[in-house]
């Protein structure tokens, strides 16, 4: 467990509000004015207390606003600690079986069990995977938008970055699928997420540009005021013995000292700290409405001086919600335009676009800009059936956040969401509430089939499948629905589905399909593609030997390819305009992400950071490429780069340090 950051006591927060040169000058002036008012001899001596009291009141109000803002921010930051796991399932010699303990009591060497839905309680080296596969969602640490397939094999590269440590489960990440045993290798601040916390705690707090300017102004003002006070007092030394002072040199000295102090107080802009604090507080409120947490008021002003914005990709520039945006099925050939004996030369793709960029089941399937009624297309109906049944994820509506959230693996959730948009069973959604809308179409499909078993994903065949039979079908004819990597699926397909039946696949057609997939997986969009297929007449359920996963590939043969879906973590709708405004304002934007380089570059093109055909050589680096540079080359790279991909938190600190060395004011967005 990460140690809780001790909050500052109230008295310390109050004192910090007075740790400003201009405020100190005002405080000294108020104290001197108050002391002199005590020795005021005039009848109307009470008015002498007005000025010091007003100054003190302004300073107190200023401190109250500052303390309130920091307390408010600390409460919000405390709520962000939900990434820590509370419990752990551990195997120890002092007790038989698995015992559940508090995660904070774990020590290196403990053997723990984690399974789907668990939050990883420590950094764990996987020693045995019990399920067929194990996937972890580690976007909170590395920024990868899809879950990562884990294994227990040794990693030979001693310099591997966190993203390449496939045999390690990191504290604070989530198990998307599978179950395993592992040995604890790090806890608390020794974990990778703990190291980030350490770096944050050790970061030196530099003064903001506004604070520096105010300090300079305060120093100059204090010097000028001191000179004026001394000059006024010295000039009037000859008048100390005037009869107006009763002939007393001491009374005359005190009188002219009071005049000098009055001039000093008059020269001080008493309202300036209050005006600055009020303006910053208003800016903080506006940022809070955008879900930004401002812990220190002066940091608001720093944003106005920012010359470089270093932004994370996943969840900042993108929604961190994997979404199917394009798909294709097959159509043809057109026998009227096909030479005799050649049924492949006029082979066609039936392409569709899918709207909606979040997990919300809201969007449409379009063909050339026109809405498609998916229920009227046999190929799309079968594709939706595969998406719904070859799937262990779900959508659920969070009423507290008024948002739809994933339950399970991001890629499968994208398919779940696609099924809702397709609505091939023509569910009447007008009578459903938001909770029911989350899975209405999926339930309609899954309730129409009986799922007998699942052959889970494995690295060797790069696919997974489910055996289903339609409910109410007297023939009890089963189907094996399969999804996986296009190359692997296509290699085992013998036919493709078309509206009128099936079409025999040959090598030419397979190459055409792979070329089409390549256009989805490269270029501006760089989508992750999944192939969907069926085995139309599989063997009986009783003949499957499910204890040995090496047999699974043999069962997933002679398949019929139904379609290909392309998905990505889409950019937020407002990001492209924000990038354009930054460029116009002279602010440079650098994307720093843990995701792979190709995906990151495609997102950068979509948001306008890279032009459509701009060369990325010298402007895009991976963490490993950056590490291989000399310090001088690193500095030069940071001056020109627009993207750093596959990086760790230490790289981010290094990049910001180079920017600060070039006198850049940098802001980190995450």
From TrEMBL:
- The P-type ATPase A domain is annotated at 84-199
Q: Which SUPFAM superfamilies match?
A: Calcium ATPase, transduction domain A, Calcium ATPase, transmembrane domain M, HAD-like, Metal cation-transporting ATPase, ATP-binding domain N
Q: List each copy of the Cation-transporting P-type ATPase N-terminal domain by range.
A: 1-33
- Keyword Cell membrane, does the record have it? no
Q: How does it sit in the membrane?
A: Multi-pass membrane protein
Q: Which Pfam family would be a valid example here?
A: E1-E2_ATPase
The EC number(s) given in the record are 7.2.2.10
Which controlled-vocabulary keywords does the entry list?
ATP-binding, Magnesium, Membrane, Nucleotide-binding, Phosphoprotein, Translocase, Transmembrane, Transmembrane helix
- Give the species this sequence originates from: Mesocestoides corti (Flatworm)
Q: Which PANTHER family match?
A: CALCIUM-TRANSPORTING ATPASE (PTHR42861)
What is this protein identified as? P-type Ca(2+) transporter
Where, per UniProt, does this protein localize?
Answer: Membrane
Residues annotated as transmembrane: 21-39, 45-68, 221-239, 259-282
Gene Ontology MF, one: P-type calcium transporter activity
What's in the GO CC field?
membrane
């Amino acid at each position: 467990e990460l140690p809780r950051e001790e909050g500052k006591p109230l008295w310390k927060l109050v004192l910090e509000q007075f740790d400003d040169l201009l405020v100190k000058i005002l405080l000294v002036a108020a104290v001197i004015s108050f002391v002199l008012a005590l020795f005021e001899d005039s009848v109307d001596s009470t008015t002498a207390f007005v000025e010091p009291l007003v100054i003190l009141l302004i300073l107190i109000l200023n401190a109250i606003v500052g303390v309130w803002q920091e307390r408010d921010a600390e409460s919000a930051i405390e709520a962000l600690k939900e990434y820590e796991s509370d419990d752990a399932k551990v195997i120890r010699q002092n007790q038989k079986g698995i015992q559940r303990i508090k995660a904070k009591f774990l020590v290196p060497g403990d053997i723990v069990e984690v399974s789907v839905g668990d939050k990883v309680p420590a950094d764990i080296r996987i020693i045995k995977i019990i399920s067929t596969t194990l996937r972890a969602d580690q976007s909170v640490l590395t920024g990868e938008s899809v879950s990562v397939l884990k294994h227990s094999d040794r990693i030979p590269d001693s310099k591997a970055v966190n993203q390449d440590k496939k045999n390690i489960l990191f504290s604070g990440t989530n198990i998307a699928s599978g179950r395993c045993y592992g040995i604890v290798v790090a806890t608390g601040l020794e974990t990778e997420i703990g190291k980030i916390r350490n770096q944050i705690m050790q970061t030196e707090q530099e003064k903001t540009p506004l604070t520096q300017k105010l300090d300079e102004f305060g120093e100059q003002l204090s010097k000028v005021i001191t000179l004026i006070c001394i000059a006024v007092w010295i000039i009037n030394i000859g008048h100390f013995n005037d009869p107006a002072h009763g002939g007393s040199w001491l009374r005359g000295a005190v009188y002219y000292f009071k005049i000098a102090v009055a001039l000093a107080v008059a020269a001080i802009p008493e309202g300036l700290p209050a005006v600055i604090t009020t303006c910053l507080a208003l800016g903080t409120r506006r940022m809070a409405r955008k879900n930004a947490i401002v812990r220190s008021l002066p940091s608001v002003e720093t944003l106005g001086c920012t010359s470089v914005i270093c932004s994370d990709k996943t969840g900042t520039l993108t929604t961190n919600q994997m979404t199917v945006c394009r798909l294709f099925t097959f159509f043809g050939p057109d026998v009227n335009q096909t030479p005799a004996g050649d049924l492949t030369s006029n082979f066609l793709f039936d392409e569709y676009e899918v709207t909606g960029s979040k997990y919300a089941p809201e969007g449409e399937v379009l063909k050339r800009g026109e809405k498609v009624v998916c229920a009227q297309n046999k190929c799309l109906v079968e594709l939706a059936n595969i998406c719904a049944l070859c799937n262990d994820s779900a959508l659920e509506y969070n009423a507290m956040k008024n948002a739809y959230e994933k339950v399970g693996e991001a890629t499968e959730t994208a398919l779940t969401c696609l099924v809702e948009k397709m609505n091939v069973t023509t569910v009447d959604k007008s009578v459903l509430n938001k909770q029911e809308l989350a899975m209405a179409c999926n339930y309609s499909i899954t309730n129409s089939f009986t799922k007998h078993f699942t052959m889970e994903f494995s690295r060797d065949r790069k696919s997974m499948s489910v055996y289903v039979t339609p409910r109410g079908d007297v023939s009890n004819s089963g189907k094996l629905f399969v999804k996986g990597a296009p190359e692997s699926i296509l290699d085992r397909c013998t036919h493709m589905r078309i509206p009128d039946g099936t079409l025999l696949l040959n090598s030419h057609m397979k190459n055409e399909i792979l070329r089409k997939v390549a256009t989805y997986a490269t270029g501006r969009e760089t989508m992750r593609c999944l192939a969907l297929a069926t085995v139309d007449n599989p063997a009986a359920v009783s003949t499957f030997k499910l204890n040995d996963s090496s047999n699974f590939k043999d069962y997933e043969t002679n398949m019929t390819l139904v379609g290909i879906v392309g998905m990505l973590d889409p950019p937020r709708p407002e990001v492209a305009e924000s990038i354009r405004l930054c460029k116009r304002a002279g602010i440079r934007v650098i994307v720093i992400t843990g995701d792979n380089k190709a995906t990151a570059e495609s997102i950068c093109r979509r948001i306008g950071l890279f032009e459509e055909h701009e060369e990325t050589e010298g402007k895009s680096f991976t963490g490993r490429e950056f590490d291989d540079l000399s310090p001088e080359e690193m500095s030069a790279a940071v001056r020109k780069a627009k993207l750093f991909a596959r990086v760790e938190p230490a790289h981010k600190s290094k990049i910001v340090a180079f920017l600060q060395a070039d006198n850049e004011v940098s802001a980190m967005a995450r």
